[in-house]
């Protein structure tokens, strides 16, 4: 029986029992969002990502300039700045609300913060950490391509990466999770999420 059939059979359990949270972490440029989005789509569950929450917060305080463009709050362009911290707080609150309501979901953030973990553990969620990794040369190229498109935040991240400030160990999953899966996205093909699906099925059996 393939994993797609198994997931269909277990979706009712994902809704009825202790929630399963797939927490995706890893370095900027490693491919977290791609893996997290594909996982949420495959499992048929909600997807939370701090970066999209940050964009929403920035747009809520944005202004329209004379040429019709949108001027975002300057804080938006500061990696790890105040707006990032507010987005983290919103994400944690939302994750806690979903988990306490028994909803399984996928959440994505570079580092699985202490506040996020404490919130999920307080809701008795089963946590599958997915650490997304890639070769240093691949991450460098991805961040360089993003920075070339004009992203100030991406230029900061590229600079930090090249200075050696984003070692893989920084993004390791915390020890309290129920299981850990590592996904390497260095190849040209779409990253395989079958190990993630199999780990979710194992948690809900």
UniProtKB/TrEMBL annotation:
The keyword Nucleotide-binding applies. Keywords: ATP-binding, Nucleotide-binding. Gene3D superfamilies: P-loop containing nucleotide triphosphate hydrolases (3.40.50.300). InterPro entries: P-loop_NTPase. GO terms for molecular function: ATP binding. It holds the Pfam family AAA_33. This is ATP-binding protein. It comes from Streptomyces benahoarensis. The lineage of its organism: Bacteria, Bacillati, Actinomycetota, Actinomycetes, Kitasatosporales.
């Amino acid at each position: 029986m393939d994993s797609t059939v198994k997931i269909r059979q277990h979706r009712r359990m994902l809704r009825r029992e202790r929630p399963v949270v797939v927490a995706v972490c890893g370095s900027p440029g490693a491919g977290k969002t791609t893996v997290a989005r594909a996982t949420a789509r495959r499992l048929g569950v909600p997807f939370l990502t701090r970066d999209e929450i940050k964009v929403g917060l920035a747009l809520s305080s944005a202004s329209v300039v004379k040429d019709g463009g949108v001027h975002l709050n300057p804080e938006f362009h500061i990696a790890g700045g105040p707006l990032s911290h507010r987005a983290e707080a919103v994400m944690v609150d939302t994750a806690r609300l979903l988990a306490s309501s028994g909803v399984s979901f996928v959440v994505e953030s570079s580092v699985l913060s202490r506040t996020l973990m404490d919130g999920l553990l307080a809701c008795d969620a089963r946590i599958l950490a997915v650490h997304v990794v890639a070769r240093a040369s691949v991450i460098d190229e991805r961040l360089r391509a993003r920075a070339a498109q004009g992203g100030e935040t991406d230029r900061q991240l590229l600079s930090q990466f090249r200075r050696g400030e984003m070692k893989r160990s920084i993004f390791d999953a915390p020890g309290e999770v129920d299981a850990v899966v590592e996904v390497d996205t260095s190849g040209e093909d779409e990253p395989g999420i079958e190990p993630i699906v199999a780990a979710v099925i194992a948690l809900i059996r």
